[in-house]
Amino acid sequence: MRAELQGKLDPAATLAAERMEDTLTDAVFSAVRYLPRQRLLKPFLAAALPEVEFSAADVERATITLWPKLPVSLLPGRQVEPDVLVQVAGHLIAVEAKYHAGFGRYQVDGHGTLQQLTVQWCALSERAAAQGLSATVVALTNGMSEPVDVARAREELDELVGAGAAAGRPQVRWLPWRVVADLLRGLRDLAVHEQALRDDTVELMERRGVARVFNGFDVTDYQQVADAHRVAAERLYPAISTFVQELTARLEDDGIAWGWPQKGLWTAGGLG
What we know:
alpha+beta, 5-stranded mixed beta sheet
């Protein structure tokens, strides 16, 4: 709904890939807004900022805004637009969600080109400083490992802001989409309408291919497949071979010969 209200689905103003990304973001974070916060928003915040303990009251009072516009002094007269902005307790958290597209870059006077995440953190930190809050940008992407652009953004921010003490460094984090999918799947004892929203959101994430990631084989499953293959090689395949040989011999006695596939499976004797 928010994607439509904020003009994200206008085909004249956006690319098809961007609309796919925006509808995914809209669906997932609308669910985060509407489903029970203590069971969905709170563990999401714990995954994004594991070093912070948010109280139940903090989570209930949190605000979640999709596609806020943030001015940034690096780009005079322009604004950046992270996908999601969460304000909770003393923290301002921007989420930049990606589907298939990579992170963009900005041409910045005096700095060359800077990562999208770098500029977003600068914009967020200016908003946060004005309110006495801390600033964290979370990159949300598909896949098993952190994208290289996240590390590059940290390096650029170290140069722009200064590394300083580890606790004071600009915070750019990464989470995979599947973390949100796992949190949604884990929700229990929902009202009927909440369960429908949860199920629809997970189904969309499954369809978009962001709900799961390869985590290796279960050793027990692998062993069962190997055992089945051994049994088939030792017992089943020889039995099939014996059956075919006996069937072929019996059919030949009746004047029916085995035929090649291009001639049909069976050919009557004398008609091949």
